[in-house]
Amino acid sequence: MRDVAVVNPLIVPADEDLRLAALRHLEILDTPPDGAFDRITALAARLFNVPIAIVSLVDHDRIWFKSHHGLDIDQIPRDAGLCASAILHETPWVVNDARHDPRALANPLVAGEFGLQFYAGIPLRTGEGYNLGTLCVLDFQPRELSETETSMLQELAALVIGEMELRLATRRAARQAREREELNDAFVAMLSHELRTPVTTIYAAAQILARDPAIQASERAQELFPDVITEADRLVRLIDDLLVLTKVERGALEPTGEPVLLQRLLPEVISRQLRRASERSIELHVEADVAPVAGDTVFIEQVVANLLSNALKYSAAGTTVDVSLRGVEGGAEVRVRDHGIGLGDEDRESVFGLLVRTDAAARQAAGAGIGLYVCRRLLEAMGGQIWVETPQGGGTAFAFRMPTA
Predict the structure, then answer these.
(1) DSSP state of 7
(2) For residues 56 and 81, what is the distance between their CA atoms, to the nearest angstrom?
(3) What is this structure's pTM?
(4) Could you tell me the end-to-end alpha-carbon distance of the chain, in angstroms, rounded to an integer?
(5) Which helix (H) or strand (E) holds 204?
(6) Rounded to whole angstroms, what are the CA distances from 193 to 171, 203, 232?
(7) 147: exposed, middle or buried (C-beta count within 10 Å: 0-12, 13-18, 19+)?
(8) Distances (CA, A) of 25 to 2, 22, 66, 158, 168
(9) DSSP letters along 254-297, please?
(10) What is the CA radius of gyration of the chain?
């Protein structure tokens, strides 16, 4: 028997406060009926051929029944229940014939109209060693419980405590998922409104000011403004990529699937890139009669902008970035080829990973390792594909295909 302390009129474990805390931790008191526990008590009643089987939890002043087969009440006072005595023990607590057992003679369930004569309770014991209640079987006739039957009842009790812990883990996982969803919503709102809007404003204002005669007349301003514009542009694209990442995590990438004319879209994106890097050059080669592709204009623009930005960033000074569009069977293919630092064969797949940057790229320019991952996820969401090649003559060529609308 475990150490006990007497608190009139109940006998309770010496660690009662900790035991009750463990019971509250499971978050199961007063929860609705549960089919899993009801199946266990029904099975116990059939296995042991008894009219009543109960999953009980001993609260501070009551014994609450999580499942009660053959009984129509949900709880009884703690001082009236044999389960309150059963939790004082680490082993099965069995009353074979309550009429002749001094431990149970005074119990109202035995002495009163209920007429209980047999009780066998297995403590529902947590991994930390706290007995929260019992799985018990009851009968109105005296009987014996064999070692095999006792072992079976212990196995069923282990199932009960396992189900309770599983439900706690499930509830907590659901709460954490809701909290993550709320955090994601807040993060998206912050990216969209608290960061992207002011950064876009800074970028646009810097471009306008850079053309002001007073600014152009200042050597110091001419040194600073290109960096301001470049970094603001980089932040805008980084925020756009992060917004895509949050949608990927939530499974919320939903392209429109509208017909998109790449021969119109590409010159517009190239023009914007050249305004941001006016000292560089991009040549576009478009095949005639390329059919529209099925995709999302915003997504495709983000893919092309990322590829062009990388090509310009990692190209050698004075070189040209070549962009081509051609029709292929069932779709169209866009290729962005630079004449820069190149890419090793061992990196051709890894560069599409999240937060992956090659050593050469890290030495060449700042970056987050997000853009190519975002490109792949956007294209996959639209039914397309992307890959990288190492062309003759050096440099790198990124290509992607999209299906015909």
Answers:
(1) E
(2) 10
(3) 0.51
(4) 77
(5) helix 196-210
(6) 33, 15, 15
(7) exposed
(8) 22, 5, 16, 18, 8
(9) ----EEE-HHHHHHHHHHHHHHHSTTSEEEEEE-TTPPPEEE-H
(10) 36
Instruction: Please state, in angstroms and rounded to a whole number, the distance separating the CA atoms of residues 371 and 327.
Output: 25
Categorize the per-residue pLDDT at 277 as very low, low, confident or very high, splitting at 50, 70 and 90: low
* C-beta of residue 378 within 8 angstroms of C-beta of residue 253: yes
Reported residue count of the chain is: 405
Q: Mind listing the pLDDT tens digit for each residue in 309-337? A: 888 888 877 788 999 999 999 999 999 99
State the DSSP code for 57.
E
| Per-residue H/E/C for 139-162 | ECCCCCCCHHHHHHHHHHHHHHHH
Q: Which residue has the tokens 């014994």?
A: 63
Give, as one character, the DSSP assignment of residue 59: -
Point out which residues pair with 399 in neighbouring strands. 335, 387
Tokens of 140: 């109105």
